[in-house]
Amino acid sequence: MSEVDFPVVDDHVHLDPVNGRGVEAAEEFARSGGTHLFVVNKPSWHYGVEVSKASDFHQAFDVTLEVVEEATEAVSGRAYPVLGVHPALISKLLERGMTPTEAADLMKQGLEMAAEYVERGDAVALKSGRPHYDVDDDVWRASNEVIEKAFELGADVGCAVQLHAEAEEDFTDVGDRAEELGMSRDRVVKHYSSPGVEGVEASVMARSEWVEEAAENRSRFMLETDFLDDPDRPGAVLGPRTVPRRVKALVDDHRDALLQANVDTPEDVYGVEIEL
Length: 276
Hints:
CATH architecture: Alpha-Beta Barrel
CATH superfamily: Metal-dependent hydrolases
Strand content: 5-15%
Order of helices and strands: EHEHEHHEHEHEEHEH
Helix content: 40-55%
Oligomer: single chain
Number of strands: 8
Low-confidence stretches: none
Structural class: alpha/beta
CATH topology: TIM Barrel
Distance between the termini: 21 Å
Strand order of the largest sheet: 1-2-3-4-5-6-7-8
Shape: globular
CATH class: Alpha Beta
Mean pLDDT: 97
Number of domains: 1
């Protein structure tokens, strides 16, 4: 593998200091050549919190801020927090007797709280989305209303929005709706993307063939592992070494595309400086 002379960024990871490896995973990422991480909070239920009011989101957000501070010490660049509400929460709230409208309202309140962190400078982006599994039409409508709230808040506080959504490729309508609500589609990121995602920014899963396809065919993309940091699901997604290893393996043939994916695009999307 070749040496890489620019920063290496994982656009979407989870670090769980309570149940998982926490900062140890960031240290492994750094030893492999990674420099910057965008760390997304895990859902509150991972910390034993059943959300019933807006303040219940605080624990997951604050745990994330603490581990991001530790991760920044572990890498040569830094870690950035991305805070928000997992779309699967709507199903959990329905199981507890809420209507789709009631569940969506609570999730919107969680996003409002996350936006306050962004406004204070404690986070750089919001996370929202809609279920990637089959749901009733009223749940689908309510989930899209939650996404729209995220776009409104992103426009208000001037930040990006990461989306957890179905495994499709055409998100043109989502990008259009973001722009109707005041957000640039260039700041809407489809997390867990394939190389063919259109209409919003693609955060491409760092599978070898997908990274190479993205580097050959896309003008803009980022890379991620969606590392879960869940000891009960150790092989569910990619490990923390993956992005640095993929970049090293492909840098000789795709240096310009990978430089843009790791520096120019995340700087543009998140409004941060990706530097060593």
